[in-house]
Amino acid sequence: MEKQLIDDCFYVEQKRYGTWDSYDKDGKCIVTSLTEEQCILSTRFILQGRQEGWDEEQTMVKSENSTVGGKL
To answer: Is residue 9 part of a domain?
Structure first.
């Protein structure tokens, strides 16, 4: 499948099973989405955040394990 240049700053490409990936100009994957439209919108959001100083490492969601006591 052929990559399409969007906004002159990133590429989107449909993958084999119908998902869409976006890549920066260096070829690094940015996001994977189910539709082309969502891929473009999500990539624009991420790139805008990076321009505004958004620190991806600090905003990553961390999962916690928990248990419920007692009988169910």
So the answer is: yes
